[in-house]
Amino acid sequence: MPGPDGRSMDGAIEGPVGIAGLGVMGGSLARALSAWGVPVRGFSPDPDEARAARDAGAVGEIAPTVEASAAGVRWWVVATPLSALPAVFSAGARSAPPRVIDLASLQAPALAAARGAGLGPVHRSAHPMVGSERSGFGASQAALYAGAPVWLSRAPVAEGGGALDREVEAFWRAVGAEPAWIDAAEHDRRMAAASHLPQVGANLIAALMEDAGLSPADLGPGGLDVTRLAGSAPEMWLDLLPHSAPALVPLLERLAEASAELARDLENHDHDRVATLLARTRRWRTE
Amino acid sequence: MPGPDGRSMDGAIEGPVGIAGLGVMGGSLARALSAWGVPVRGFSPDPDEARAARDAGAVGEIAPTVEASAAGVRWWVVATPLSALPAVFSAGARSAPPRVIDLASLQAPALAAARGAGLGPVHRSAHPMVGSERSGFGASQAALYAGAPVWLSRAPVAEGGGALDREVEAFWRAVGAEPAWIDAAEHDRRMAAASHLPQVGANLIAALMEDAGLSPADLGPGGLDVTRLAGSAPEMWLDLLPHSAPALVPLLERLAEASAELARDLENHDHDRVATLLARTRRWRTE
């Protein structure tokens, strides 16, 4: 089965694949699979989005319901917002195949939702480290996962779970990604610092700039970079932030302390302390 | 005089131009002028950097001293760190031509330094809104100023100063930049919010990430963007931050308050307030 870049997928993903949610994450996966000739059945709560995915060739068949996206497929991929996972897993649980993946950005709540729907043993959580400040199927692209790290985690599983682990790894390698296993709680702590902190940091800094009477047109390349994430879709982050609050709140409290401390250092002409901060982060960022 | 992109410079810059400082800013200007055939005499306190600029064809003649870079030229451009301006202006004042420009990122202290050296009437401050987290002649490029906004400011000048204003505007237009006049104090307030705040914000967030055990390899594209400026040269910012402290300290104090407030909102599940912040900055950043 020759793919778009001439490599052979060698049957690494046997379809059909059902995908619930056709936004930038699910839509990009649908595009990649369809480009390799894997049959995809897609569901979107937005009929226009489903039709757009079909018209783009990303989805061969539109599933009329969540349940229909899970029935009769070999893989079921749930690419909905995190807060929708409990309802979506429950809706598909009865008909779901023994290979279920979600793409949520936080994994402890995703595992809990799967367990709550009785899907624990057949479910793995997969967080591709990709994304866009744009959202929806219109922002999807077949190459989104090429070269992307994908964090995988699982609930403690029954005997024989290792076979599914290997199948899930092969699934992601087949679309060009680089999967690696992690503990779900550790994953979520890392995401709070690596992803949620810079997101809200960009929001906070952008709000101060607006208060100062600036517009993005007043910024140089550095200021534009720092505030790019401030353009992210609020609904995506309102879906995640309540779940990451336990890890994120202490980071924000430390950001508050560090900002106040730097203000004091500048006011007191304590430039040695400022120099220490600048030298330390330069080393970290450029090494 | 045909330039590298086929346009004619039409004598807009009559040389020779003396440039004191051949880092990324002065070096890029030297490259652009030399590419148009304008004679450039350059000084660097680092003999290796001066030789590199001559070997690259950016500088036709190496000036052995600051004074020599100012003597017998038509324009004298001072492209040193802000903190060096008083000494450099004083060194060149006696021999300087009646067209003196500095490229400092803060203009009230630059104007004060020129006034202190008796150069007020013949000096204009020019801040090109370009830059790089890299520094030194090795990071210079002939096209750095193409399309770049350049803020111009001046001290209250004697009668007849308008002619120099127009010459300075034409100078920057000739290297492809877009000059505009601004009040120096207003410029410096804007820079504190548009440039210094995102710089130190990136430093603060990067330090928290390092504390959390992350390395840049753990970041997605968003986290990399937000922290890119954390790789900036400390010496450049240690040169500027003491001067921008009066405007920057209140911004850092407000960043501290806003961070603590967001932490409280998340802790109290006050998601309406979080939503307001996210929606507001998305509108600002994407409109």
TrEMBL record, chains A, B:
InterPro entries: 6-PGluconate_DH-like_C_sf, NAD(P)-bd_dom_sf, PDH_C, PDH_N, Preph/Arog_dehydrog, Prephen_DH. PROSITE patterns: PDH_ADH. Transmembrane segments: none annotated. Residues 15-287 form the Prephenate/arogenate dehydrogenase domain. Gene3D superfamilies: 6-phosphogluconate dehydrogenase C-terminal like domain (1.10.3660.10), NAD(P)-binding Rossmann-like Domain (3.40.50.720). Keywords: Oxidoreductase. Coiled coil: none annotated. PANTHER family: PREPHENATE DEHYDROGENASE, PREPHENATE DEHYDROGENASE [NADP(+)]. This is Prephenate dehydrogenase. It comes from Gaopeijia maritima.
